[in-house]
């Protein structure tokens, strides 16, 4: 029986070990001792992590793709910080697991019971986590099977796993659920939309939503970095145009989209790439007073802000909030509505 401690902070500050006075996400270290939990916490037996793309790419690159070293690095980060919070990228991911216990203050107030399977929808960069063992590293899909435990706080959000979707697929999709949901909110009929990194997981989901919302009078342009990924995207028939483009080459980005749009540029840019230095390319592809949504955690908002200033471009820039109301349901709907995306994700994540 897990001991329950009264009086937990709704935002989880009671788990912060250092520095004092901050919330869990910006903290350096969290308390990941789960022999006791606070009355407003939900204890989870963790089965797998979906590390966010920017973080996993950084770790994989640093150890030359060695799966054993990837697992060791993740263990090192969690052991040191009490959470999966990559010190280089500042980002985390999500987890999948089974409810082990629910604090007294939440009992009867959540649609959960011990034994339920959930995907957390709050970042691993703020989730107290202990990993006892790394069981498997799936380096091609940014996932790691583990044995361990975690808690989410009163303010934490989650989604129950649907019966009609495989668990690893649902976890992979929900890790980026904020992107297609924000796309659904931002795209208007008739818009010209550029999806930067349209060949990746979040880019594919965004392309579907953008095409759906822009309608027959709109135009969706997807970018990829290789012939193979671009050909795969073309086969999905989600974009009106698919172009091979280096998103870090700002001048090439401007030239390509200017040519495609007869100089009008795009109304909306959705940036999903997991590498740095793509800010100016996105800005140059966007028309005056258009909008750029930086979903990528590799984005430098200093570079974005000062870059736009430096070239005298008046654009609206939105930080990629991983949470949007209804984002889990929107993402599940995309998978259910689009057989081609479902088939591709089943191939990749199952």
What class do helices, strands and sheet pairing give?
A: alpha/beta
> What is the CA–CA distance across the termini?
35 Å
What percent of the residues sit in helical stretches (DSSP H or I)?
25-40%
Number of helices: 11
Choose one word for the global shape: globular
Total beta strand runs: 16
- Describe the strand arrangement of the main beta sheet, using strand numbers: 8-9-5-6-7-10
Radius of gyration, CA atoms, in whole angstroms: 20 Å
Q: Give a short account of the largest sheet.
A: 6 strands, antiparallel
What's the assembly state of these chains? single chain
| Succession of helices and strands | EEEEEHHEEEEEHHEHEHEHEHEHEHH
Strand content: 25-35%
Unreliable residue stretches: none
On the 0-100 scale, what is the average pLDDT? 94
Your description of this structure?
By secondary structure, the protein is α/β, with parallel strands linked by helices. Helices cover 33% and strands 26% of the residues. The protein has helices spanning 53-62, 67-81, 167-174, 178-186, 201-214, 227-236, 250-260, 279-285, 301-310, 327-337, 339-349, and strands at 3-5, 16-18, 29-30, 36-38, 42-51, 93-102, 117-120, 129-138, 143-152, 158-160, 192-196, 219-224, 241-244, 266-271, 286-294, 316-319. The radius of gyration is 20 Å and the shape is globular. The model has no long low-confidence stretch (mean pLDDT 94).
